[in-house]
Design a protein that fits this description.
alpha/beta, 5-stranded parallel beta sheet, 5-stranded mixed beta sheet, 42 helices, elongated
């Protein structure tokens, strides 16, 4: 991928992440459990914990401030409130303080302790008594789970500070579930300083007091009074420090409780004395994730190489199509800092998902990333970065985390559009093949839309820019990305495009509803649509009479006029075996009902291609379903105005596209030919190839026959006398012109005449130039016969009735006698070239013709650059500049750069017809770039 190494080559994950043996509890640290000696060893073992802790700038500031307060520095803040939005900051900070100041002596030689000590009073970590008041672990009554005789926070505080002796001093207030005085608390704290009080999940504890108090409110009020008195007491006790978190991770378990009111009251209490701590802020999360998930993230130079490659890619491929923030040099710094994650992925987890209670409660981000890394590493997915679109939603671990946020109702959407092998996005990847399938581009785009569909944003979903950065990587063209993105929008069943954003819902979208309706579309409705559209692509234009649905020879009249007939779809051509249709076509071309066909040279048949006709039938079915839905007023009310407008636009696009698909389908031409030397005619199969946007089947057949001289708008007089046409054998002097006309209609060895006027003009010109004569009479040798040669004659005078003969020039002159004026010498033509010979000149003799030069050795390779070729000359250019080389056995490759300029917008269905249908049938792909 543009020469960049895959992320897992530079940033190897920890082994437990790679093999999936990691303990998910590692990503859900719990202060209350640790204080009871329970939980993962990584959190229980103080040495191991500080060894794996990454010291962000904000975490360092907080720990230094706490350390100075415990060390007796009067300038240090006493009360601190934690404020975080993302797992891995709040609890980790509390645990850092718990271990560092509760085990200061044991940890004094660790790297983390040394980093902090130099900024703390006396140059060392102070050893303190640590009290943990964890609202999720404590209950407002006396239970053994509390591991304390206390019934209130006051009782738990006293017991943890000084054991039973300290508890006895507050027993009366605790058993009465009453608060105490500030002075009493100050005295208690001074006896056990330095002391550090850690309060976690405070709001949850207050919710429990409401439940335990039977909604009377006294216990809750007393608890709030105690917290207020405690903050004041700590602020007035040197060596005492309080660190608290106010919010709770799973208050949704407490229904009917006014969380906002409780939180507001708590905030007012702490607001009097607090110092707000935000240990992990902004991009501080990057190294935290790195430390927990990876052994290493490579060298600065390796990370910078990737960052610059992405910066160049965004600027060169997308320009102003991407917001400036992605093209700013600062964003390159963010890519380098976040590596191997794309910053967009971490921003998604921080800003969108960080506000979701389920996500915050379970520390889902770290678990999601851990499962994602495990799955991506195991599957060998190669990518310079891990993007939002790379999240492997098919992995059970990842999916479980996602569904905790989204709810199980989204499982149907995931199955239908993303994770199953037969999902809509997977099928699109497989249909396109190549690089798209290798990257699973459609699946990644759908994934990007899905993961952006949840969060606190007023407008959920991914914007065009977010879809781009969600999957875009160096080496992936903008055209391919946007083409697949637009296709996914039109094939997914649960993804919607509303207000410029792609998002998933639990309700089926238009695509799904249309597919459901398609199954109920009757066959006659499809046939009616196809019949109408088919007639529109085979108009009765000169020189043709046209008809459709020809199944047998009896369906086409035996007429002397040119007829272009489309075979019934039953006679569709399998590219690998066209023989069956050729045989059927031969019978229709050669026979009429139960007898032979007289006018064999006036009939042309066109059969449909199986694959293209199948696509046309599918579109007709979809169009019928969409029309039915459009007219279903009741069902249509379930969709918003934007979706209703989308449906109307889809109907119009399908109506415009269907004729084009049918023009593409009817590409196999069958005509009789080669019936020479008395042998019966054979059926020739001509493949028209792919159409231009404005062509019809009629115009394509006309152009193809004209280009091969199979259909003539003008006929040279000498051709009537040629051996090729064999209309006037050498031993025959004359032929009735009525028989000439019949011959052109009957004999497939002859070209087709666009009209009878072609033969009239040819005869008139032949007479004028003296190529032959026209003789009218009872017989051409009759004494009173009228002989015309070497004179002007109007074509209107020529009537194809018995009694008029074409007579060889010499014989006609002899019949006229010596008094007849000679043919105009200026009208004579060179028999070799057909070029008129100027008066007074003669043809060169054989001896005067220069001998051909011997061929000289030419180049073995050649490159032609032909610029500014208009559309109507492309086929001619191929004829004169490509095919001659191929005919010599040379290997010829053509690279086309097509520039399109239009005064009005180019309809999407035209582009689809060229890019998807046309080139796709040839096994070719095109990169399209809007200009």
């Amino acid at each position: 991928m543009a020469g960049l190494k895959s992320w897992n080559e530079i940033a190897p994950p920890h082994l437990d992440i790679v093999n999936g043996s990691f303990d998910e509890a590692l990503f859900a640290a719990d202060l209350g459990l640790v204080s009871k000696g329970e939980g993962p060893q990584d959190y229980l073992d103080a040495q191991l914990f500080v060894q794996k802790t990454y010291l962000t700038a904000n975490l360092r500031t907080a720990l230094v401030e706490i350390g100075n307060r415990l060390a007796g520095n009067p300038a240090a803040k006493a009360v601190h409130r934690m404020q975080t939005e993302f797992g891995g900051g709040k609890t980790h900070t509390l645990l850092s303080a718990y271990h560092l100041f509760g085990n200061a002596r044991a940890l004094s030689r660790t790297r983390l302790a040394r980093q902090l000590s130099s900024s703390i009073k006396d140059g060392r970590l102070p050893q303190a008594t640590v009290v943990v008041l964890d609202g999720s672990a404590l209950t407002p009554d006396r239970t053994k789970e509390n591991r304390s005789p206390g019934r209130t926070l006051l009782g738990h505080l006293a017991f943890q500070l000084g054991g039973q002796e300290a508890y006895e001093g507050v027993r009366a207030e605790d058993e009465a579930r009453q608060a105490t005085s500030t002075a009493h608390l100050v005295a208690l704290l001074k006896r056990y300083t330095p002391c550090l009080i850690l309060m976690d999940e405070t709001l949850e504890y207050l919710a429990k007091t409401i439940t335990a108090d039977g909604d009377q409110g006294a216990l809750t009020t007393n608890t709030l009074v105690f917290i207020k008195e405690l903050t004041t007491a700590v602020a007035n006790t040197p060596g005492a420090c309080l660190v608290a978190t106010l919010t709770a991770s799973h208050l949704e378990d407490f229904t009917g409780i006014n969380h906002e009111d409780l939180l507001e009251r708590l905030a007012k209490i702490f607001g009097r004395t607090e110092n707000v701590i935000t240990p992990v802020e902004g991009d501080d999360i990057f190294p935290v994730l790195h430390t927990r998930l990876f052994q290493s993230t490579g060298t600065p130079a390796q990370r910078r190489t990737v960052a610059d490659a992405y910066g160049d890619y965004y600027a060169e491929q997308f320009g102003d199509a991407l917001p400036a923030v992605y093209r700013d040099p600062v964003y390159r710094d963010r890519i380098e800092a976040a590596y191997p994650f794309h910053p967009e992925l971490i921003d998604l987890l921080t800003h969108r998902w960080g506000s979701l209670s389920g996500f915050q409660r379970t520390r889902g981000a770290l678990r999601t990333l851990a499962h994602s890394i495990k799955a991506l590493h195991a599957e060998g997915r190669i990518s310079p970065l891990i993007h939002p679109g790379d999240i492997p939603l098919h992995d059970p671990g990842v999916r479980a985390e996602i569904l905790k946020i989204t709810g199980g109702s989204y499982l149907a959407a995931l199955n239908a559009d993303i994770i199953r092998e037969d999902s809509r996005a997977r099928i699109e990847d497989q249909r396109r093949g190549g690089e798209v399938e290798k990257l699973r581009l459609a699946t990644k785009l759908a994934t990007t839309a899905f993961v952006n569909s949840f969060g606190s944003d007023k407008v959920p979903g991914a914007s065009d820019a977010q879809m781009t950065v969600g999957v875009g990587r160096p080496g992936l063209s903008r055209g391919a990305l946007e083409d697949v993105r637009d296709t996914v929008k039109n094939v997914a069943w649960y993804m919607r495009y509303e207000g410029g954003r792609y998002r998933f819902t639990t309700e089926p979208n238009l695509n799904k509803v249309i597919v459901e309706r398609e199954s109920a579309v009757p066959e006659d409705a499809i046939a009616e649509l196809l019949e109408k559209a088919t007639k529109s692509v085979v108009p009765a234009e000169s020189p043709w009479r046209t008809q459709t649905d020809v199944l047998s020879s009896a369906d086409v009249r035996d007429e002397p006029r040119l007829t272009l007939a489309l075979l019934d779809p039953e006679h569709r051509v399998e590219p690998s075996a066209p023989g069956a249709v050729r045989d059927a076509a031969h019978r229709i071309l050669s026979e009429y009902d139960q007898s032979g066909r007289t006018n064999k040279n006036t009939l042309v048949l066109v059969a449909p291609d199986t694959g293209a006709l199948g696509r046309a039938r599918a579109l007709a079915r979809t169009l019928a379903a969409m029309r039915e839905l459009r007219d279903d007023v009741h069902r249509l009310k379930r969709f918003n105005q934007e979706q209703q407008a989308d449906l109307r636009e889809r109907v119009v696009r399908a109506e415009d596209r269907l004729p084009g698909l049918l023009t593409t389908a009817y590409r196999h031409v069958f005509v009789l030919a080669n019936g020479t030397g008395g042998s019966p005619p054979t059926t020739q199969h001509l493949d028209l190839g792919l159409p231009r946007a404005s062509e019809t089947v009629t115009s394509r057949v006309t152009e193809r026959l004209r280009s091969g001289d199979g259909l003539l708008d003008r006929l040279a007089p000498a051709a009537l006398l040629s051996d090729r046409f064999d209309l006037l054998p050498a031993d025959v002097e004359a032929v009735e012109i009525e028989d000439l006309l019949k011959a052109f209609r009957r004999f497939p060895r002859l070209p087709k005449l666009a009209s009878v006027e072609v033969l009239r003009d040819c005869l008139a010109e032949g007479v004028r130039r003296g190529v032959f004569g026209l003789v009218s009479g009872a017989t051409w040798q009759a004494a009173d016969a009228v002989i015309r040669i070497g004179e002007e004659i109007s074509p209107d005078e020529i009537d194809f009735q018995p009694g008029t003969w074409l007579v060889r020039a010499a014989r006609a002159q002899a019949l006229r006698g010596p008094e007849a004026p000679p043919a105009h010498p200026s009208d004579a033509s060179s028999p070799r070239t057909g070029t008129p010979i100027a008066p007074g000149t003669r043809e060169p003799t054989t001896s005067e013709v220069p001998a051909p030069r011997p061929p000289s050795a030419g180049p073995t390779g050649l490159r032609l650059h032909i610029a500014d070729v208009p559309a109507d000359k492309v086929r001619d250019v191929v004829k004169v500049a490509v095919l001659p080389f191929a005919a010599q056995g040379a290997e010829v490759r053509v690279e086309l750069n097509v520039s399109v300029r239009s005064s009005k917008p180019i309809p999407p269905h035209v582009i689809d017809l060229v890019v998807e249908e046309g080139l796709g049938q040839l096994g070719l792909r095109a990169e399209t770039h809007e200009q």
